[in-house]
Amino acid sequence: MATRKLYAGAKLRDLRGRLGLTQKDFASKLGVSLPYLNQMENNNRPVSTTVVLALAQEFGFDVTELGQGDSERLISDMREALADPVFGEHAPPLADLRLTASNAPALARAFLELHRAYRQTHERLASLDEALGREGTQMQPSPWEEVRDFFHYCDNYIDAVDRAAEHYAHSLGPGGADLRAAVIAHLRERGITVEFHQSAPLRSYDAERRVLTMSSLAQPETLTFQMLIQVALLRQEKLLEATLDLARFQSDTARAIAKLGLANYFAGAVMMPYMRLLEAAQETRHDLELLAARFGASVEQVAHRLSTLQRPGAKGIPFFFARVDQAGTITKRHSSTRLQFARFGGACPLWNVHQAFETPNQFLRQLAETPDGVRYVLLARDVTKPAGRFGAPVRRFAIALGCEVKHAGALVYADGLDLGRDSAFEPIGISCRICERTDCHQRSVPPLEKRISIRPERRDILPYTLE
């Protein structure tokens, strides 16, 4: 198999900027000529082995980051935005999108922001939203979208928060089933009383009385997680605020949502400290149930946390994680793989996560191949969130975890699967508008880059043919 050339001009420019070096000084430290560096920074030449070694030796740079980053996310997001009918037949080819993501990522993000503003304007007009008529109204991304993109482009790994959580976890002891008692003791030492009541909300903190009230009907792992969220809000206030300052959110609402998201991140990282989880995951071959029992967490919490193990120099398997509701809407999503989820709408119906609702309390395994030829091992399971009392609504979701098939040996869930048989891999897509498959029996709308032909005298699976 031919070795894939590495083009990382944007990352080289970013690194040089952070170091405060001119092109001439940077080229000298890398041991290359100025014209050669200029060509690499503009993606006219691939990054050579000599440069990769120099980056590691001279600057201590984690060279695995050169092959990762925002490009695949930007390409996926641009393709989905360009599926909007407003672009008609003028959407650029995929090759142009790859060049834009590699050479001009800032331009790509600006385009996505522009399209997002257009969508919001269109949706407000369609619903007769009076906000457009108010004086001083400015178009901004929805707070939820803004926060989602913040975590999305951070690779769902926040180093400072993760390390602070790991340090706090070590101060509490071994964790697992004893963690909740240790957290309660820690809060008590700081003058905070923890009370449990059936009629209480999941979590409620009274700052004046210094009382944290928890619902006694919640699951044990949920109680631990919610207590740790409160610990983050109380103990890590300065760290959370500093992280939010760097993010530069456009609204107070987005900042508030992101702060809660960072507190959630801290809670998960305390329950499952980075290095402990990484070692345990490798030891158990990523058995979610064993890991959940060891860390006193739920299967969903473990799956989500595994998708964040992207610390430079100590990375875990690059997983994607998603949670889907019964309508097929993705309510949580993150991908450290080349597979990127649709930003709007539901996921591919051929994905096994949708079948998980039909087989409660069972893990479903799937071998899948995306249109770009990349193959994955996929895992799905339903998640039920009971209310704890009769008559209360029960929340149901399905979670999915997956990675590229090259990591199958590190997964207990890949045992027994026929990885060598091409027909064992089911063709799936991202969303119909950006999926190029012409023979999908579940297609709902035509793909962006294909023409359709209508033949009234002929009807097959689809009411049109793709050219």
Structure characterization notes:
Helices cover 41% and strands 13% of the residues. It is globular and about 65 Å long. It has 16 helices and 11 strands. The strands form 3 sheets. It has a 6-stranded mixed β-sheet, with helices on one face. It has a 3-stranded mixed β-sheet with strand order 1-3-2, covered by helices on one side. The protein has 467 residues and is α+β, with helices and mostly antiparallel strands.
How much helix, percentage-wise, in residues? 40-55%
Tally the beta strands.
11
Question: Which stretches are low in confidence, meaning pLDDT under 50 for 5 or more residues running?
Answer: 128-138
Portion in beta strands: 5-15%
Annotation field: number of helices: 16
How does the overall form come out from the CA principal axes?
Answer: globular
The radius of gyration is: 24 Å
Span of the ends, CA to CA:
31 Å
- Could you tell me the mean pLDDT? 84
Structural class of the helices, strands and pairings? Answer: alpha+beta
Side-by-side strand order of the widest sheet: 5-4-8-7-6-9
Task: Give the helices and strands as they follow along the chain.
Answer: HHHHHHHHHHEEEHHHHHHEEEEEEEE
Outline the biggest β-sheet: 6 strands, mixed
Q: Would you kindly provide a brief summary of this structure?
A:
With 467 residues, this protein is an alpha+beta fold. Helices cover 41% and strands 13% of the residues.
Descriptive key words:
alpha+beta; 467 residues; single chain; six-stranded mixed sheet; three-stranded mixed sheet; 11 strands; globular; 16 helices
